[in-house]
Amino acid sequence: MECRAGAIWDEGYLAYDFGDHPMSPVRLDLTVRLARELGVLERLQVSPPRAAGTEQLLTVHDAAYLDAVRAASDDPSYQGFGLGTDDDPVFPGMYDASALIAGGSAQAAHLVWGGEVEHAVNIAGGLHHAMRGHAAGFCIFNDAVLAITELLAAGAERVAYVDIDVHHGDGVQAAFYDDPRVLTVSLHQDPRTLFPGTGLPGDVGRGDAEGTAVNVALPPGTTDAGWLRAFDAVVPGAVRAFRPEVLVSQCGCDTHHEDPLANLQLTVDGQRAAIARMHALAHDVAGGKWLAFGGGGYGVLRCVPRTWTHLLAEATGAAVAADAAVPPGWTSYLRGRGVTGALPDRMGEGPLAEVVPWVPGGEGWLDGAIGATRRAVFPLLGLDPDDPRD
User: Fold this and answer.
1) Sign of the CA dihedral 39, 40, 42, 46?
2) For 5-50+100-381, which CATH superfamily applies?
3) pLDDT tens across 272-282, in order?
4) Residue 133: exposed, middle, or buried by beta-carbon count in 10 A (0-12, 13-18, 19+)?
5) Which of 122, 242, 320, 327 has the fewest CB atoms within 10 Å of its CB?
6) Where are the chain's structural domains?
7) Any idea what DSSP says for residue 43?
8) Contact partners, residue 288, CB within 8 Å, separation at least 6
9) Which residue ranges does the record assign to the Histone deacetylase domain (predicted)?
10) Are the C-beta atoms of 352 and 273 separated by less than 8 Å?
11) C-beta pairs of 373-377 under 8 Å, 24+ apart in sequence
């Protein structure tokens, strides 16, 4: 099914650069180069980002924090508000680079809400750890929160946010924990084993928003089949019950088995399947309105470019086959830059394992985690936690 899809992209995004750091902008550059080589980029309406202005950013961040980011942009010794740490070292132009990404995500939101496109992708976005008053986890401004805030201001009454990054989407959950208009769903490695240490099944929202935070805490070592079983058992039911007008997805790919910062074991094929599920869900429950961001992902050569190229292609409705060859031009570019290690030759990694549906009473950490989430939040959404059809 062909879809009208847009992407927000400009090489200005590459200025979001912490230096010698896992969050390397090369992952964005290599994704766009791969998508261009495969003909994906030409099927997208590509727009350059516009930086978020101060008034926009003040809807999601404190004025004192914005001042701190400005100060850090000019002072390499700056420390405070989560800045100047190993996770979030300061760099020249930090404010402008961060505002450009945030503005790009807000722009994507308006393209979708205004009907100019059905789906919009900002691969530089998904900086989901930034809090209202401080930086965290490689994230300076929370573009996902800004995009959702702009959707609400534009008239959306219910927005669903699904986060598949290996780390809990804590900044987005925190921003909307009391807001019944926003459903936040996060599938992540168990917080007892990984940063940021939040996102347990009992975190379900507060007050009138009780039932609008959904957290699936997956055991280290979870593979494609187990991860997709968890997704299928929780996400479609929760999102359908919420009846959103827009689906927002954070598509971090640090769940990959080669990712250096976490311990899940997904393949590019599993991640591709997850993205396809979210695309289908957007058409099923949100009239096709789908806004997708990048996020984490630190396998900058073998994982991120392939997975996010699949994301861009999926948004167009013309998926790239998993067995498609990686274009020789892309490989030659890397070799020309001195890369000597093994590079992928196909857009996937092999056959996707069979996904066995979840049933109540399953044994083991994974099925126990699925059951814990369903018991905690499904009754609050009017669903039966023990009925696999919900």
Assistant:
1) negative
2) Histone deacetylase domain (3.40.800.20)
3) 999 999 999 99
4) middle
5) 327
6) 5-50+100-381
7) G
8) 3, 118, 119, 282
9) 21-313
10) yes
11) 373/201, 373/214, 373/215, 373/216, 373/217, 373/234, 374/233, 374/234, 375/201, 376/201, 376/202, 376/204, 377/201, 377/204, 377/211, 377/213, 377/214, 377/238
Encode pLDDT of 298-332 as tens digits. Answer: 999 999 999 999 999 999 999 999 999 999 999 99
DSSP label of 94? H
What are the catalytic residues? 129
Q: Which residues of 17-56 are buried (b: 16+ CB within 10 A; e: fewer)?
A: bbeeebbbbebbbbbbbbbebbebbebbebbebebbeeeb
pLDDT tens for the chain, residues 1 to 390: 789 999 999 999 999 999 999 999 999 999 999 999 999 999 999 999 999 999 999 999 999 999 999 999 999 999 999 999 999 999 999 999 999 999 999 999 999 999 999 999 999 999 999 999 999 999 999 999 999 999 999 999 999 999 999 999 999 999 999 999 999 999 999 999 999 999 999 999 999 999 999 999 999 999 999 999 999 999 999 999 999 999 999 999 999 999 999 999 999 999 999 999 999 999 999 999 999 999 999 999 999 999 999 999 999 999 999 999 999 999 999 999 999 999 999 999 999 999 999 999 888 999 999 999 999 999 999 999 999 999
Question: Three-state SS for 338?
Answer: coil
Give the Cβ contact number of residue 130 at 10 Å.
Answer: 31
Let me know: does 229 contact 368? Beta carbons within 8 Å. Answer: no
Rg (Cα) of the chain, in Å, rounded?
19
Q: Please tell me the distance from the alpha carbon of residue 319 to that of residue 321, in angstroms, as a whole number.
A: 6
For 243, half-sphere exposure in the C-beta direction (CA atoms, 13 angstrom radius) is 3
In the chain, where does DSSP find H-type helix?
26-37, 54-57, 63-74, 94-113, 143-153, 170-176, 224-242, 268-285, 304-316, 328-336, 365-377
Q: How many residues does the chain have?
A: 390
Token pair 């700056």 in the structure block, residue? 78
DSSP annotation string for 244-274: -SEEEEE---TTBTT-TT---BB-HHHHHHH
